[in-house]
Amino acid sequence: MSLKKYIERIERMNWLISKKATGTPIEFARKMDISRSLLMEYLKFMKQLGGAIKYDTHAQSYIYLDDKEFYCGFSPKYSPGHQLANEEIMQYGLSPKAKFQRTYGNYFQNFSKSNHIGQS
After folding, report:
1. Global pTM?
2. CB-based contacts of 40, cutoff 8 Å, min separation 6
3. pLDDT exceeds 70 at position 116
4. Cα separation, 103 vs 66, whole angstroms
5. Count of CB atoms within 10 A of residue 84's CB?
6. How far apart are CA 24 and CA 88, in angstroms?
7. Can you give the pLDDT at residue 37?
8. Distance separating alpha carbons of residues 12 and 92, to the nearest angstrom
9. What CATH number is given to the structural domain containing 22?
């Protein structure tokens, strides 16, 4: 399976968790079209990345315990003429890409190697 597919699954999981719409672990696995054991591996990986995730029995959904959310993608590069990126850097101190790299370091690289992602 490609790294892109893994990231897409994590992004979908992030969306369902942030909406508190996962359902029970079995329902969540069905929504993701994966086994329950594979779902648990993804959740473990998301937690290793810094996601504070837990199952809320009252809401019958996985939830985030803090204001973080998963982000993997591209963001505007800092340039003297690019006002939005400059304001973002001034407000938050780092671009989303730099924050992502600083926060997650080599997690994706290690995950990819251990799961043989991108290898023929």
Report:
1. 0.63
2. 25
3. no
4. 15
5. 9
6. 37
7. 96
8. 26
9. 1.10.10.10
Q: Is 32 exposed, middle or buried (0-12, 13-18, 19+ CB in 10 A)?
A: middle
Q: In this predicted structure, what is the pLDDT of residue 73? A: 72
Assigned domain for 35 exists = yes
**Cα angle for residues 36, 70, 40 (degrees, 5° grid):** 15
Domain that holds residue 19: 3-64
Which residues, including other chains, have CB under 8 Å from residue 1's CB and lie 6 or more apart? 117
Quote the CA–CA distance of 43 and 32 in Å, as a whole number. Answer: 12
Letter for the amino acid at 17? Answer: I
pLDDT of residue 30: 97
Query: Distance between CA atoms of 87 and 92, rounded to whole angstroms?
Result: 8
Provide the pLDDT confidence category of residue 70 given band limits of 50, 70 and 90: confident
**59-72: b (≥16 Cβ within 10 Å) or e:** eebbbbeeeeebeb
Beta bridge partners of 64: 53
H helix runs in the chain, sequence order: 3-18, 25-32, 36-48, 83-92, 96-104, 107-114
In a domain, 45, yes or no: yes
